[in-house]
Structure formats: structure tokens, C-alpha cells
Amino acid sequence: MAPLLEVRDLRVEFPTRRGTLTALDGVSFDIAPGEVLGMVGESGAGKSMTGAAIIGLLEPPGRIAGGEIRLNGKRIDNLPYEQMRRIRGREIGAIFQDPLTTLNPLYTVGRQLVETIQSNLGLDAAEARRRAVHWLEQVGIPAAAQRVDSYPHEFSGGMRQRVVIALALCAEPKLIVADEPTTALDVSIQAQVITLLKGLARDKGTSMMLVTHDMGVIAETADRVAVMYAGRIAEIGPVREVVKHPKHPYTRGLMASIPPLDRRVEKLAQIDGSMPRLSAIPPGCAFNPRCPEVFGRCRVERPVLLEAGGTRAACWLYDPASEKRAPEAMRHG
Amino acid sequence: MLAFVISRILQALPVMAVVALISFAMFAYVGDPVAIMLGQDFTEAQRQALVASLGLDQPFFVQFAKFLWNALHGEFGLSYRLSRPVAELIAERAPATLELAFCAALVSICIGVPMGVYTGLYRNSWLSRLFLTFSLIGVSLPTFLIGILLILVFSVWLGWLPSFGRGDTVQVGWWSTGLLTASGLKALILPSITLGLFQLTLIMRLVRAEMLEVLRTDYIKFARARGLANRVIHFGHALKNTLVPVITVAGLQLGGIIAFAIVTETVFQWPGMGLLFIQSVNSADIPVMAAYLMLIALVFVTINLVVDLLYYAVDPRLRVGGGAARGH
Amino acid sequence: MAAAIARMLDSDLWWSFRRSPVTIASAVVALVCILGAAFAPFLAPHDPFDVATLNLIDAFKPPAWAAEGDAAYLLGSDDQGRDILSAIMYGARVSLLVGICSVVFAMLVGVAVGLLAGYAGGAVDGLLMRIADIQLTFPNILIALLVDGVARAALPPAVHDRVALFVVIFAIGISAWPQFARTVRGSTLVERNKEYVLAARVIGISQARIMLTHVLPNVLGPVLVIATLGLSNAIISEATLSYLGAGVPQTQPSLGTLIRIGNDFLMSGEWWIAVFPGIALIVMVLSVNLLGDWLRDALNPRLR
């Protein structure tokens, strides 16, 4: 089946006083219709930035400097503002992190739903309002017919995020970009919200790009997962494979640092060092200064995504052409 | 709602009390009203009689209570300078000042808000830069100088508009209005601009700052992500959220306008309360100064109350339990 | 000394100063104003107060470039035959003097009150800030006018004339202290809870000393910004008071007094008597304002 969303070699730059920073570099992935793609990585790895680039709302001065984004085969990365606006809402919906700040405090949730439905689907006011109530019911707001005239501050955090989900879905987009949809919520509510989101996406056949740093959420929700590091994709593949048999040394480190649920461990592994700042990304593989398996080629040549037995990893270990060698640390040690 | 209004009024009372005390202290202790009212020749008996009739021989609190009681009834005694009841003088002058202040507020809001919105939305356009430069000059120009320069250009050099006075006025009941005659309206133009210009630049800068702040918020970004039109986002969502701080400052500025009217009225010889006040300051006419001070305090307190009520109308978060439901 | 200069040239403040041509220009203009005013007795072409040199034949001369202009009176002369340029230089002297003195006065009162309120907290803080709030409700100029009016009524005319300058300084200063007090209180509250202050308290340094040696230096940045912007406000307030006839005595005319005098001749066409002092006032205030804006942005880049 043809992919719904294709991202090819996406490059996002931030011109600053001290030179241009490359926030995203050569990011490529697809999302098939109905598929949920998880995006994980540390803060600053570029996962939210990828979402913002797709919905065309990069914070200035950030801009797409290269590559392309296609929705249903049609390029959307270079559209003028007005055309992109018509795509937002009715073709790509978005969910943001903090439901306390994503809703306009001065308008009732009903009004915000109605204006979204009307401006995207062109329905009359009565029909839009009927749908607004319907959507509130769908996302599990009790007594939706009364609550539709409530203001955001009259809802709890979890309920507000449900309202945000209703707002993102109410114009029936084919793709949802959900940026950390549960991070700001109480732990007890996170599971409910993610179940709701997953259920709705499945029912409507909506694809989803789920940005999160919570591997638990990914494991439970996503079909495939992309691991980002320093503005690049380190590894991408089916969730089971990436979680159980990570290929990229970074992914391995990441997985080893997550406490397993099924057994007790004395000490969690951690990756030494920290992710480089955007102004100081090393040449070659961005991970090379921290990689336990680094060798010569990693420092000079940037790895591309390579087949790595079930997943694809941006790591020279999986290039048959690389001369397999023992990690340098050992040789010198 | 009622509880909210009452609590605000209770908060305003100490302010009024302090102002009343200052006014009274001025009234009672500054200068010697007896000497002023008696003139050159008087006997001790005359002096004593006057002191007694003014109640100046009574204890402080009795005098203060009396002063308050009289003030509540609009009695502030006789002007030293004009020997007429102060209340009458002020009532005579009030329409002129209020009409001027109203027009100045209209000018500053109707021009200041759109300019602020524009410079907030298109922060790098050349017009925005022009507006900002203009506003910096506006803040640096003393009100009286603006008036003088306007008179020089539009009255002296061009001869288009009158340089002083209210023009022809029409009596509507006890209120004399300049809004109904052509010459009255013409006379209003220069003073209104003079008085409103500082407030205009202030409102413009404030709206711009608030607009920039609001446009950065998540809910504006989310509104864009929902595919709403720019027009709806900018003038619905964004502008409405800038209103709360703008109402505060604009409201307080309205009070400022009435106070600054002192200067504008002097420049244009506008027969209002401000001109009366400045004439009183120059001739140490304490009763008029005290009454004016109380009146201005009342105006400020009233404006603050109205501003609070407007908040109430704009921001639903304040409506539930008087602000207790903020946040979660 | 050399080290201090080197440190200054290396600082962020100096760096941002050099990068802004507008700021450099306004600094130069402000400096010219200050020097011109300070050395007016040496620099001014005439002495406008020396009655002996005044001649009514020289009255109402238009600026030198006008048809009937006189090169001796560059910016023209007024009704008494005084040279406008000289009057402006002497007037700016009074304006600046009153402005600076009243800002310093407001600063001393405001910083002291702010430190006290912020450090003492509780009822003292509540009372002081309530007073500041009440005063802030009323425009500066109204308060200054009121103080001036009361002084006029309370003092015998002869005494009043002698102390008029101090009355104006007091009136303007007392109308401006709350801004300082509020800012200093805010910063004091922040500083008070920082660890170095706690540490100083633990090792037994007295409260007053902690305030003066630890807290005060940390609130000086914002105070400097308010003082600079306050100076332009004070100059405007003084000019306004003098224009209204309630400011400095006629014997020591400030720029505001000159404009007041010139105002009377506006309608009869002698515009220069009011306009040139007005321009001088604008230039002075604008340059101080620009410096204040720069200082605010330079000391607190986040505000941009």
C-alpha cells in the first residue's frame, strides 16, 4: 500500500547570530495508512521538531532547508501559508503536550470545537454544534451536552486532553501528529488517554505519529518506532524488534537504561556522556564520541540507514563493506 | 458577582479615607483660612466668631467628621479666590473636562489598539518600525509641548483650528456641551489629540507587547494546527487574550487623562476643572484643591471598579467562586 | 585604574553599547547637553541675567538665518532682548539640576523603603507597599502639583521664593519614589532567599550589613535603569510644573519657564521664543530615554 506520509531527507535549520544550526538532518521515514509510528529520543533529539515541520508550524526562525514531505504523494513542505492552513485540521491533526495551555482559556470548549468543525468542514452552526457534542461523547466526556458550554478551566487536566483529542480529530484528518500527548498528565490518567487515542485512531483508520520519550507508551501503542539522536534517525523498525533486539548501539543503550517490569535489576545501565549540542555535532556518526563500538569510519563518514536484521539502523556496524573490527576502546585499553 | 463588587468597594474605602484625610489636613492646617477670609481689618471678636462658625475651635476628629459629612454632601466651603461655593465651581467646569477626556480616550484607544495589533502582527514591517519610532518620540514629548506645537502648526501657521477655548456650547440641562456645534467640535480636535497622544503611544506599546506574548502561546499554535484562518486567530483568539492587561492600563490611563487634563487645559485655556485647579494651586486656594483631590480620587476608584468588572466580563476564569478556580 | 578601564572595555555592556549606533548618538547628544548646561557661564554667547547688557532694541530678533536675523543672536531673542541660545543653556542647567537632584532624592527614598519592605516583610512590607500602591494610582504630575501647591500655601511668599527650587525637587522626587521601592522590594525578596544571604546570616553578620553589602549591590542594575528613565520623566515633570507656573522661580528660568514665556508670543508670530527651548527639551529627554531603553535591554536581554 502506498504510504500516507513520506518524509525524505528532511533538513531543518535555525539561522542564529553565531551561524546556522542544523536541527534536523537527513530525516526519512514513511507512515502507512492506519499505522502508528512512534518517535522516541532524548529532549532536543528533534522528535517534536519533526512533528512541527510536518504540520508546517516550525517556530521562526526555524525553516525547512532541504528534503521533502509528501502527504498522499503531494508535496506539502513548500506550500504557501494559506494552502497549508487548509491541510492543517482537515488532513493533519495535531495534539500538543500540555492540555492546560493548548486550549484558549477565554472560549468555551464548544465554541472551539464548533469553529474548528465549521472552518474545516463548512457545516452550518447547528450541525457543527451537534457534532461538537458527539465528539465530546466520543472522547468520553460525561454529560457532553452540558459540558459543551464549559470553559477549559472547568475541566481537569485529563479531561482537557480529551477535549484536545476531540479538537484534533473533529475535522476527520487522515494523520494525527501527537506531540507528547500524555507527558503533562498524571500517571494514573496517562494510560486512559493513550488507550482512548489509540482506540479512536483505529476506529477511524487514522494514521498517527506519536512523539514521546516514554518507551512504555510506544511499546503499547505503536506499530513501528523511530529512534532519534541529535537531529537524525538512529534506528527505525517494528516496535517488537527495536525493543527486544535493538541494533544501533544508541538504541541498545537506551533500552538498557529502561527498568524492566518483569525482573529486578540492581543497577540500570547508562550511556556515558550526553547528546551533543546542535552547534557541536561531531563529524561522521553523531553518536561516535559516546559509542562503545566506535571505529575509524564512524568518525569520518556519516552512516546511512542500513538493513540490520529486522530493523534499519544508521550504523556502520551493519555495512558489509565496513571492515569489522574490535571496538577501539578495547584495542587501546 | 455582588460579593465581588462589594469586596472591591471595601478595598477602595481605605484609599478614599487616606485621600480624605490628606484633603482635610490641607484644609485645616495649610495656610490660615481665617486670615484670608477676614482680610486686613478685623477685631478679635470677629476673628473668634469666624473661627467658631468654621468650627476650627473643635477637636480634630470632630472637624474631620464634619469635613467628611460635608464632603459626602458635596460641600467643600467657599473658594478663597472666587468666594463662591467650591461645589458650584466644579460642577460648572466638569462638563468641559469630561468631554475633553472622553474624546482623548477615544482617540487613544481607537488609534492605539489597531496600531498595537499591527505592530505586534507584522513586527518587522517598515510601517511597524515607523510606528515604534513615533511612539518613542511620543513618550519623550511633554504634553504641553505637543499642545504648543499643534497650536503653532494648525492655528498660527495654517489657521485651520482654534487655539483656545471650547467654541460655542449648548446647554443641555445643567450640562454645557461642545459636542453639538461645529465650532465646539473644531475646538475639541487639538486638545483631544494633545491629551490623548501620550496614552495612545502607551496603549500601542502595551498592545504590541501583549500581542507578541500571546502569539507565542500554545493555544495560538494549536489554533493554527486546527486550521483556523489567520483572521480568526489574530482578531478572535489573540486579541481577546490581550484585552485583560489592556483594559487595566487603558482604564488607569483614563484616570491619567483626567489628571493630565490640567496641563492640556492650561495650554488651550480650556475652561475645565484642570484649569480651575491650576489657578487654585497658583493662588493657594486650598478648598478648591482639596475638593479636586477628593473628586479625582473618586474618579480613580470608580475607574478601578469598572476595570475590575470588565475583567469579569472578559475572563471566565474569574467568574467561578471569585477567582478561586484559577488553574486546575 | 588601567585594569578597571580594560575590564570596562571588555564588558558586555560596552560591547552592546558599541553595537548600537542610536545609543552612541544619544550618548553623545546627552553629553553635549550636559556639558553645554554645566559650562553655560563660559560657553554661552550672552549672559541672559545681566540686566546691564540687555537692550530692548534687541528684543524679538528672529533666528540668525531669517531675513531680519542678527548673527549675534543665533536662535533669536525674546521680549526682553535676551539671547535664546544663552537662555536655553542656562535653562537646561536648571532643568538638569532639578531633574538629577529629584531622581537622586526619589532613589534614596525608594531604595531605602524597598530594602526595608523586602527585608522586613510582614506588616511593615504590607503597609509600605500599600502606600506605594495608593500613590501609584495617581499620576506623578498631580502629586507634584499638589505638593507644590501645599508648600506655596504653607510658606510665606518670601521664604517660598528662597526655597522654591528645593520644593520642586522635593515635589518631583516624592512623586517618583514608589517605582524604585517596588523594584528594589521585588529584587530584595528574590535575593533574601538566596543561599549567600542565608550563609551570611548563619555566620552572624548583622541584618543591616547584609542588606547594604550583599543585597544592595544586586539590585543596583534595575535601579540604574529606573533612574535613567526616571531622569527623563523628572525633566518632563519639572518642565511641566514650570510651564504651569508652579515650578522653579522666575528668577531661575528652566526650559519649561522659557516655553511658558514664549507661549505668550506664539500667536503674534514670534514662534522661536517657545520652539527652540521646546526642541532643546525634546532632544534632551529623547537622548536620555534612548540611553535608558538601551540600558534596560543590555542589562536584561530577556526583555527583548
TrEMBL record, chain A:
Question: Does ATP-binding appear among the keywords?
Answer: yes
The record's listing under SUPFAM superfamilies reads: P-loop containing nucleoside triphosphate hydrolases
Keywords of the record, alphabetical order, are: ATP-binding, Cell membrane, Membrane, Nucleotide-binding, Transport
Q: A Pfam family in this protein? A: ABC_tran
CDD domains tied to this protein: ABC_NikE_OppD_transporters (cd03257)
Where is the ABC transporter domain positioned along the sequence? 5-255
Q: Which InterPro entries match?
A: AAA+_ATPase, ABC_Ni/Peptide_Import, ABC_transporter-like_ATP-bd, ABC_transporter-like_CS, Oligopep_ABC_C, P-loop_NTPase
Q: PROSITE patterns annotated for this entry?
A: ABC_TRANSPORTER_1, ABC_TRANSPORTER_2
Q: Where in the cell is it found?
A: Cell inner membrane
Q: Name one GO molecular function term.
A: ATP binding
Can the keyword DNA damage be found in this entry's annotation? no
Bilayer topology reads: Peripheral membrane protein
By its UniProt entry, which PANTHER family does this protein fall under? Answer: DIPEPTIDE TRANSPORT ATP-BINDING PROTEIN DPPD (PTHR43297:SF2), OLIGOPEPTIDE TRANSPORT ATP-BINDING PROTEIN APPD (PTHR43297)
What is the similarity comment for this entry? Belongs to the ABC transporter superfamily.
Task: Provide the protein name.
Answer: ABC transporter ATP-binding protein
Give the taxonomic lineage as stored in the record.
Bacteria, Pseudomonadati, Pseudomonadota, Alphaproteobacteria, Acetobacterales
TrEMBL record, chain B:
> Which chain positions lie within coiled-coil regions?
none
Alphabetized, the UniProt keywords read: Cell membrane, Membrane, Transmembrane, Transmembrane helix, Transport
Subcellular location(s) per record: Cell membrane
Question: Per its UniProt record, what Pfam families does this chain match?
Answer: BPD_transp_1, BPD_transp_1_N
Q: Any stretches that span the bilayer, and where are they?
A: 12-30, 98-118, 130-160, 172-198, 243-270, 290-314
InterPro entries given in the database record: BPD_transp_1_N, MetI-like, MetI-like_sf
> What membrane topology term does the record carry?
Multi-pass membrane protein
Q: Does the keyword Membrane apply?
A: yes
Boundaries of each ABC transmembrane type-1 domain copy?
Answer: 94-311
Which CDD domains does the entry mention? TM_PBP2 (cd06261)
Top-level taxonomic group:
Bacteria
The Swiss-Prot or TrEMBL record describes its family as follows: Belongs to the binding-protein-dependent transport system permease family.
Name recorded for this polypeptide: ABC transporter permease
Organism, as annotated: Belnapia mucosa
UniProtKB/TrEMBL annotation, chain C:
Q: Which UniProt keywords apply?
A: Cell membrane, Membrane, Transmembrane, Transmembrane helix, Transport
In which domain of life is the source organism classified? Answer: Bacteria
Q: What is its main location?
A: membrane
What are the subcellular locations of this protein?
Answer: Cell membrane
Sorted alphabetically, which Pfam families does this protein's record hold?
BPD_transp_1, OppC_N
What PROSITE patterns does the entry give? Answer: ABC_TM1
Bilayer-crossing residues are 21-44, 96-119, 131-151, 163-184, 215-236, 271-295
This protein's membrane topology, according to the annotation, is: Multi-pass membrane protein
Domain ABC transmembrane type-1 residue range list? 92-292
Q: Where is the signal peptide?
A: none
InterPro entries registered for this protein in UniProt: BP-dependent_transpt_permease, MetI-like, MetI-like_sf, OppC_N
Family affiliation: Belongs to the binding-protein-dependent transport system permease family.
This chain's protein is named ABC transporter permease
